[in-house]
Amino acid sequence: MDLTPPVARFEQAYRDGDPPWVIDEPQPVVAALARDGAVTGTVLDPGCGTGEHTILLAGLGYDVLGADAAPTAVRRARERAAAAGVDARFVVADVLGPFDTVVDSALFHLFDPGDQARYARALAGVVRPGGVVHVLALARTGAAAEFGPVIDAADIRAAFTGPDWTVETVGPASYRGVVTAGLAGSYGEPAGTRVEVPAHLARVRRR
Question: How far is CA 29 from CA 25, 103, 109, 138, in A?
């Protein structure tokens, strides 16, 4: 998929150090999904970044694939997995399914509305009927915009419309980020502070 965000921007962010979404641990919301049995079967972690969620799920015994378009992110993810002693799979590419579960942590909200719909259509081609997509995306409230693009719950519903999907739930959640030196002034917290920002968590089922 050739979608909105330029890959070069993210590649450079990973080369420069740790962007604010790299927190050296899985997002608590994603860890809770795994703990509560909401992740099943074969799993895709699109936009996996430095691999925290892929490593978590692989370590729990899931058949999971982490995919990211930024080569530096994937290299760092593989290094992180090796250091953790976890046999996790990563690719620098679009992927072919089928998958039972997709865990989208802070990828969907990067796209503009047209590409959000294209992304949903593309996922329909790799998710088995009955499979589930979990979308964790920054909400258009509070200070979330300091950490990336923000969306409304309606944007998720609009993208996953049509015959392929049923949006089962969209509710409030939180996304954990790290205040970088560049964000310290505008956020009012010292660099290195971990903060929780408003987010949406959606569960979308493939028909």
Answer: 11, 11, 16, 13
Could you give the dihedral angle defined by the CA atoms of residues 60, 43, 36 and 193, in that order, rounded to the nearest 10 degrees? 80
> CA–CA distance from 21 to each of 126, 171, 192 (Å)?
26, 21, 12
Predicted confidence at residue 3, as pLDDT, reads 55
Q: How many helices (H) and strands (E) does the chain have?
A: 7, 7
Query: Lowest-pLDDT range, 16-20, 25-29, 155-159?
Result: 16-20
Q: Percent helix, strand and coil across the chain, each rounded to 5?
A: 35, 30, 35
In 5-139, which ranges are E strands?
Answer: 42-46, 63-67, 89-91, 99-105, 127-138
For residue 105, list its beta bridge partners: 136
Handedness of CA 65, 71, 77, 78 (dihedral sign): positive
Tokens of 56: 């978590």
Amino acid type, 82: A
3-class SS of residue 98: coil
Residue type, 182: G
Phi, psi (rounded to 5 degrees) for 118: -65, -40
CB atoms under 10 Å from CB of 31, counted, come to 16
Q: Taking Cα atoms as reference points, which of 86, 94, 114, 115 lies closest to residue 47? A: 94
pTM greater than 0.85: yes
